[in-house]
Specification:
16% strand, cilium biogenesis/degradation, alpha/beta, 17 strands
């Protein structure tokens, strides 16, 4: 959402809707109009303001569920810090299973993704990756050799310098440079105002009367209250979470006594939570059991399963299934450890002794990275300034088959975007269903606003939208005759 009075957009560190497999969301009419290259259909996808890369990761991980297609992703974000985080999430997902166990990969991902404080071991991993990322943004040849599926050619030199600065900040071990515990408390006090002394009641109201009422009942009171109070969403390992997560740092223009200045701090979400992205929907029905009207598993359990499933499918190409022991587990509210024994039906990623596989010190920054190789996927990072200029670049005209807009960036959706979409393209717009700090009337009216904006841009709705049921709205590009009739 826009920062008050500044025209800036607060960084979307995690999304306000569950992760999507974009091939599943793509309309059938869009698929029928795909162009081919070397007899392989191409699906060109533009993601504007996705923030955390959840749709990118899920689409890539589940790509082998669909007929073979070449996936070209084009990503625009409001902040370079968000592109930097997506680089980190992408490389973490692509870690070779021989170098990092599946469970450890999932645990580190969730810590970096949604925790204000992380373990020292996770910090060491981030610092190691920063060495590689600095080489990637400063040496294009090196980047192509280690991450050939990532295309940074459109990123300007100034933005490369800023990315290098971001990675150097992440790499710096001094925790006092980013006192997130203080930032979190100040932001919480400012948001709650007079309600701060009775904040536990405010947390319960937001959880039960807003998130649960709107379909996020998987989030338990214990984990939500902990996150609202401390910013720590996921505590999977019994470790010490005491190191600031510098990947959550970003800059915002604020008013100071000497004028407007750029200030580093925590400017992200403190009300909705990171649980929405991976923790409220799942294909595994055994995680959705209830007892006395309450879910027996939590959003952390679901997040852990979903990421484990995605990373498993990325390597094997087959769906992940819970071991039988986990499915028949009691109605405990504890966090599940996935997988418990490493066996996955007929497909297996073995969780070898973590002393040899997962529990390394990650002191391999001098070794050449050995990431999982992904075919038929290219990810292009684009400058933020291009969000209003894509139609002026001939290579993008009539290119995109799918366009996704987050609710924080939908104000950039104009009729110019019709020029860069292919025939019968699919437009997906994130709704504000799970935004806690919006009154229900604004959540309802936002659906009408989005429908009007999409229509003016040349897209028609494909079904009736329900603000309480839908977390995204899907539209289809109208051809010229349909547009004239409307």
């Amino acid at each position: 959402m826009a920062a008050a009075g500044s025209g800036e957009v607060y960084p979307t560190l995690w999304g306000f809707s569950p992760a999507l497999d974009l091939q599943m969301q793509c309309l059938q009419t869009t698929i029928q109009h795909l162009t081919t290259c070397d007899d392989v259909p191409e699906l060109n996808i533009l993601l504007v303001g996705c923030g955390d890369g959840r749709h990118l990761l899920k689409t890539i991980c589940q790509a082998r569920r669909w007929p073979q297609r070449r996936l070209n992703f084009f990503i625009i974000e409001s902040d370079l810090e968000l592109l930097a985080r997506q680089m980190l999430f992408l490389t973490l997902a692509l870690e070779n299973p021989e170098q990092m166990g599946l469970q450890e990969k999932c645990d580190i991902f969730l810590e970096i993704f949604g925790n204000s404080l992380i373990r020292s071991k996770t910090t060491a991993y981030v610092q190691d990756k920063c060495e590689q990322f600095i080489k990637c943004v400063t040496d294009p040849e090196y980047q192509q050799s280690v991450l050939p599926l990532l295309d940074l050619s459109c990123i300007k030199f100034k933005e490369r310098d800023e990315l290098e600065y971001i990675f150097k900040f992440w790499r710096t071990p001094e925790p006092k440079l980013f006192p997130i515990e203080r930032y979190w408390e100040v932001k919480n006090r400012q948001f709650l105002g007079k309600r701060y002394d009775s904040r536990r009641g405010a947390y319960d109201w937001d959880l039960n009367m807003k998130l649960h009422d709107r379909g996020a009942a998987m989030i338990s009171a214990m984990e939500y209250n902990r996150w609202r109070e401390t910013g720590v969403a996921f505590m999977i390992r019994e470790g010490i979470y005491d190191v600031p997560n510098k990947t959550l740092a970003s800059h915002m223009t604020v008013t100071h006594r000497c004028g407007k200045v750029r200030a580093r701090g925590y400017w992200g979400d403190i009300t909705t939570s990171p649980y929405i992205a991976y923790g409220i929907e799942t294909e595994e029905n055994s995680l959705l059991k209830t007892a006395n009207g309450v879910y027996t598993k939590t959003a952390q359990d679901v997040s852990q399963y979903n990421l484990t499933s995605m990373f498993h499918e990325l390597v094997t190409g087959q769906k992940y299934t819970l071991p039988t022991a986990e499915k028949n587990d009691g109605e405990e509210g504890k966090a599940c450890n996935f997988p418990s024994n490493g066996s996955v039906g007929q497909t297996t990623i073995r969780e070898e002794d973590e002393q040899t596989n997962g529990n390394t010190d990650h002191e391999r920054c001098d070794e050449a990275p050995n990431y999982i190789k992904i075919n038929n996927v290219i990810i292009h990072f684009l400058p933020l300034s291009w969000v209003t200029d894509l139609h002026r670049r001939s290579k993008f005209l009539s290119l995109f088959n799918i366009i996704y807009f987050s609710c924080s960036m939908v104000h950039h959706l104009t009729a110019d975007y019709r020029l860069i979409t292919a025939s019968k393209a699919t437009l997906i717009v994130e709704l504000t269903k799970f935004m806690v700090d919006l009154h229900v009337d604004k959540v309802k009216s936002y659906v009408s606003i989005v429908t009007k904006v999409a229509k003016e841009a040349g897209f028609a709705t494909t079904e009736n939208l329900d603000w309480k049921r839908d977390h995204v709205a899907t539209f289809e590009r109208m051809d010229n005759t349909e547009n004239k009739e409307l």
